[in-house]
Amino acid sequence: MAKFKKASKKKAGSGGASAQAQAERLSSTLSESAQQIWLAGVGAFGRAQAEGTKLFEGLVKEGLSLEQTARKFAGGRADAVRDAVENRVGQARERAADTWDKLEKVFEDRVQRALTKLGVPGRDDLNALIDRVDALNAELRKVNGSSAPRKASAKKAAPRKTPRKSPARKQA
């Protein structure tokens, strides 16, 4: 019973915290989670890279060993054995490339999921926003009376010493 009373007192005390402090804690927690997800992905990529390199080096050593053994037994058929070994090495390289492609895809998917969970806008969202801004600019041009946007002249103008003030600043 005593433990329950202590827990209820803690909950009642945390209810008085301001929304600002809660928002800051949430923001901090999300930021830390994003950092941990990123670091985990980079660590996984590094481990896969190191293990992939070790695997490749091991396959090369094994191939050299097979080639030497085959030369001893084959005698005059060394070219056929070399071709077989090169074929095996080529297959190993293809498998390694496939493994890297799969690993890259997994890494990209995990990072994309993490960014989506954090609410980071994607390429499609940004393109849609750009389209909306362009449409709004076109509407503003119609309202202001200019039918076409100004196009840059073919010749470069000399740089000005004083910066131009935008029309938005004048109106404000």
UniProtKB/TrEMBL annotation:
Residues 1-26, 140-172 are annotated as: Disordered. It holds the Pfam family Phasin. Residues 1-12, 152-172 have a biased composition (Basic residues). InterPro entries: PhaF_PhaI. NCBIfam families: PHA_granule_1 (TIGR01837). This is Poly(Hydroxyalcanoate) granule associated protein. The lineage of its organism: Bacteria, Pseudomonadati, Pseudomonadota, Gammaproteobacteria, Lysobacterales.
